[in-house]
Design a protein that fits this description.
Blueprint lengths: L8 E4 L5 H12 L3 E6 L2 H15 L3 E5 L5 H15 L4 E4 L14 H29 L2 E6 L12 H21 L4 E8 L5 H8 L5 H11 L8 H11 L11 E4 L9
Parallel strand pairs: 1-2, 1-4, 2-3, 4-5, 5-6, 6-7
Helix pairs in contact: 1-2, 1-8, 3-4, 4-5, 6-7
Length: 259
């Protein structure tokens, strides 16, 4: 199926590895011009080179720290100057540390707010005017299933990504008249370095932890990066033009709630 993404200009955060890398690779394979960001320049450059070689796509690496306001602005400016506009923004980054709520001081909470919530606010705020100039666009935020089904020791992520969901829903209403769509994805257990940390937590046998997590998922497996990337590609494409304001779990049926 052609998603009609050829020559669309996109920015994907946290794209040196994991979910962000997979999303950037998929968009480039669909013909989009993709700017990728992450904090570690050497790793990001290697990722851009791999994506370009494997897809033949136009991939631009912009090293940046999403926790810094000036870096968020710079990413938008650099991508727009390189591509002549902006059509797609995928807000994605790592997650704050795990731990008991009582163990986190104000500094930890402030870092989590900057990394998860303010990153999304700043990127969207800077991107929307350029999307308006193009007559529309699409923003997708990557959070986690814990944002809608809280998990013990994930408080920093749960609280700040909960804010992202509320922000995105509100922005989707305000931006809709300009043809800009805003959606949020909540991945479940996905094969990433973040999940590896869960496997290793508490000194348990990683294989035992994996089996336990798989047994919790009705589909019986851990998700893949492609499971997320494929949905993102649909949501930012004209094929997904009637989807906005949605919060979508991609979790193999892990979320049990009826909403």
């Amino acid at each position: 199926m052609d998603l009609f993404l050829k020559d669309r200009a996109a920015i994907v955060g946290g794209a040196s590895q994991g979910i962000g890398y997979g999303i950037a690779h998929t968009l480039a394979a669909e013909g989009a011009r993709v700017a990728i960001t992450a904090r570690h320049e050497s790793q990001l450059s290697r990722a851009a080179e791999r994506i370009s070689q494997e897809t033949g796509g136009n991939v631009l690496a912009i090293p940046a720290d999403c926790r810094r306001a000036e870096d968020c602005e710079r990413v938008i400016v650099c991508a727009r100057e390189a591509f002549g506009g902006l059509d797609i923004l995928v807000n994605n980054d790592g997650a704050p540390p795990l731990g008991e709520i009582a163990s986190f001081d104000d500094g930890a909470w402030q870092k989590a707010v900057e990394q998860n919530l303010m990153y999304v606010v700043r990127m969207a705020r800077a991107a929307v005017p350029h999307m308006k100039a193009r007559g529309g666009g699409a923003i997708v935020n990557i959070t986690a299933i814990s944002a809608i089904q809280p998990i013990a020791k994930f408080a920093l992520s749960v609280a700040t990504w909960g804010g992202v969901i509320g922000f995105a829903k509100t922005l989707s209403i305000e931006a809709a008249p300009f043809g800009i769509r805003v959606n949020t994805i909540c991945p479940g257990y996905i094969e990433t370095s973040r999940l590896e940390k869960v496997f290793a937590a508490g000194g348990q046998d990683p294989n035992v932890v994996r089996h336990k997590l798989e047994s919790e998922v009705p589909l019986g497996r851990i998700g893949t990066v492609d499971d997320i990337a494929s949905l993102v590609a649909l949501l930012v494409s004209p094929r997904g033009s009637y989807i906005t304001g949605a919060t979508i779990q991609v979790d193999g049926g892990l979320l049990r709630a009826v909403r």
